[in-house]
Design goal:
single chain, alpha+beta, MetI-like fold, 16% strand, disordered N terminus
């Protein structure tokens, strides 16, 4: 091979080296993250779940609240659209007509009889119940604190059906669509987790940064306060708060209150990690150089110390989401968190504790699959970000 033929290859390698050394930290993290296949798949799944939650009203053919229940299809099994049967093929997906009745032979339970001669065809971009794609309702104590933000009113849904109802995940005991409730529950749980994580994240950086940077007496006082917060038992605390919450508070107000409380008790772990790192790094030469140049304590912490702790902060921020979602789910499951008519994963999981549901209506476990998928997606993405942000990780070698 001649020298001329080798020059483009060598030039390409040189360009790659220059791009590597001139790349920003975010570009390097993204380049390493893309090499982690499991993290990329989890990231795609996570983005899909977030979009499903955000577009839940558009994707849901029916209102997930009591107002949208199907009185003629209570405890109904999931309905899967078909394209062909014994009567032939159809380009339009269809469902059979269900005729329900009670019988003494079944202890007066609802029995569904399928009439295959009557097809009901699925329609796309069908009109249905009206909703606001972007909506925020918050009823805080006092009329001055009521918030009403409604944007983009629509009545178009991704799919519907020409006659009767279509319930992909079945219905619950009151006839509410489990598919619609699941999508709205994912968004509610994500919103609770987001508010809680942001509150705990800000508190952890501020309190941990001050404690680790100044040390001494300030550090001792802050650590005493941190230990006091960590020793507070969560369940008795929420039992007391549940008794404190007024009955006239709306479901949205309760949701906002639960989010704030989760954030206020979730910061000590990250604060201790930030404090430990800053205690080690505050004596480094670059910190002393910044102090000699007249930089303030806030500038040193924000611009020099915290960026050196980026990988751990990113991991803790991402990993905190599933724990916040798990906390909300657990509290709502035992009746101390959100309640109907709010749709959250914890509220929906309350139905699976019924023995009758466990034995006869197993489709109520479908929200459990979404909950597990959401938690695992956050865990894999957090693990991938940790490896990508850590320059000493073996996976980046």
């Amino acid at each position: 091979m001649s020298k001329a033929s080798k020059m483009p290859v060598e030039l390409g390698g040189q360009q790659k080296k220059e791009a590597y050394f001139t790349a920003s930290q975010s570009q390097l993290i993204w380049a390493r993250f893309k090499k982690n296949r499991s993290a990329m798949i989890a990231g795609a799944v996570l983005i899909g779940l977030i979009l499903m939650g955000l577009l839940a009203p558009f994707l849901s053919p029916y209102d997930p609240t009591i107002a949208g229940r199907d009185k003629d299809y209570q405890y109904g099994a999931p309905q899967i659209p078909l394209f062909w049967d014994d009567n032939g093929f159809s380009w339009r997906p269809f469902l059979y007509t269900l005729e329900r009745s009670r019988s003494i032979k079944t202890n007066f339970r609802w029995v569904s009889k399928v009439n295959k001669d009557k097809r009901r065809y699925v329609q796309f971009f069908a009109k249905g119940w009206k909703y606001h794609l972007l909506r925020l309702d918050l009823d805080l104590p006092g009329k001055a604190f009521d918030i009403r933000w409604h944007w983009v009113e629509m009545d178009i849904h991704l799919f519907g059906i020409d006659q009767g109802g279509i319930h992909l995940f079945g219905t619950d005991k009151s006839g509410k669509d489990i598919f619609a409730r699941t999508l709205h529950a994912v968004w509610t749980s994500l919103a609770v987790g987001t508010i809680g994580v942001l509150i705990s994240f800000i508190l952890a950086l501020v309190i941990g940064g001050i404690s680790g940077y100044f040390g001494g007496f300030i550090d001792s006082v802050i650590q005493m306060f941190t230990d006091a917060i960590r020793t507070v038992p969560a369940i008795p605390l929420f039992m007391a708060l549940a008794a404190f919450v007024p009955d006239e508070w709306s479901a949205q107000t309760r949701f906002f209150f639960i989010s704030i409380i989760l954030g206020l008790i979730g910061w000590p772990t990250l604060a201790r990690r930030v404090r430990t790192h800053l205690l080690t790094e505050r004596a480094q030469e670059y910190v002393l150089a910044a102090q000699l140049c007249g930089a303030s304590a806030g500038h040193v912490i924000r611009r020099h110390l915290l960026p050196s702790f980026t990988s751990y902060i990113i991991v803790d921020l991402v990993i905190s989401f599933p724990y916040m979602v798990l906390s909300e789910t657990a509290l709502s499951f035992i009746g101390l968190g959100l309640k109907d008519p709010v749709n959250s994963l914890g509220v929906m999981l309350q139905n699976v504790t019924n023995t009758d549901v466990l034995l006869n209506y197993q489709w109520h476990f479908i929200p459990v699959i979404f909950f597990m998928t959401l938690v695992l997606a956050f865990v894999f993405v957090g693990d991938g970000l940790r490896d990508a942000a850590d320059p000493y990780s073996q996976r980046n070698g």
